[in-house]
Amino acid sequence: MISSRNQVVTTRLDTPLGSMVAGATGDGVCLLEFADRPLLPTQLERIEERVGPPASGSHPHLDRLDAQLDEYFAGTRRDFDLPLVLAGTGFQERIWNRLLEIPYGRTISYDELASRAGSPGGSRAAGRANGDNRIAIVVPCHRVIRANGDLGGYGGGLDRKRRLLDLEAGGPQTSLS
User: Fold this and answer.
1) Angle made by CA atoms 52, 55, 59, in degrees to the nearest 5
2) How confident is the model at residue 2 (pLDDT cuts 50, 70, 90)?
3) Quick check: is 141 catalytic?
4) Is the pLDDT of residue 33 over 90?
5) What is 8-74's CATH number?
6) Is residue 144 within 8 Å of 154, Cβ to Cβ?
7) What is the pTM of this model?
8) Labelling 90: which of 98, 100, 117, 160 has CA 20 to 30 A away?
9) Can you tell me the distance from the alpha carbon of 63 to that of 89, in angstroms, rounded to the nearest whole number?
10) How far apart are the C-alpha atoms of 35 and 33, rounded to whole Å?
11) Does 5 score more than 50 pLDDT?
12) Average pLDDT over residues 129-139
């Protein structure tokens, strides 16, 4: 087990929506991305620049994350109780903190997200920051949709976004094939 504050311990976690890459430091979880996301290498570079170099291993924060993800997908957990390392620009971190305030089962628009972060009219910038979120599901970027009700984008793919929203709405769940 690596416990240095600047070392990012990474591992793979299996979820009903596919394999994910998770990372943590002694301060908390800093990464949770779908392993097949095309921007995963870029996200890993950003983690290395802002937090520290990654190394495969185990960590208590990752064990807690895995257990809480299991509970979330089983429908028995609505809120994650994990320390988080939100390593971004000031604007990104404001957006990500606003994402954490969106209740389970609810959605907001990109416009509303921007307004909540103190940037009315900044929906495009809020959308970019939302897309740069490196802690999927836990920092619920999937809860942001277009003002007209369309899903918009999602780094893990729209099918996964729909499944996450269906899970939170109490709908039927199936694994990705």
Assistant:
1) 95
2) very low
3) yes
4) yes
5) 3.30.160
6) no
7) 0.91
8) 160
9) 28
10) 6
11) no
12) 96
DSSP alpha helix (H) spans, 31-89 = 40-50, 60-74
Helix (H, G, I), strand (E, B) or coil at 33: strand
Query: Beta 18-25 vs 8-15: how paired, if at all?
Result: antiparallel
Position 1 scores a pLDDT of 38
- Residue 94 has, within 13 A of its CA and on its CB side, a CA count of 15
The active-site residue out of 141, 144, 164, 165 is 141
**Listing from the earlier edge strand, what are the strands of the sheet with 18-25?**
28-34, 18-25, 8-15, 54-56
When the pLDDT of each residue in the chain is averaged and rounded to a whole number, the result is 91
Q: What angle do CA 166, 171, 175 make, to 5 degrees?
A: 70
Q: Count Cβ atoms below 10 Å from residue 153 Cβ, excluding itself.
A: 16
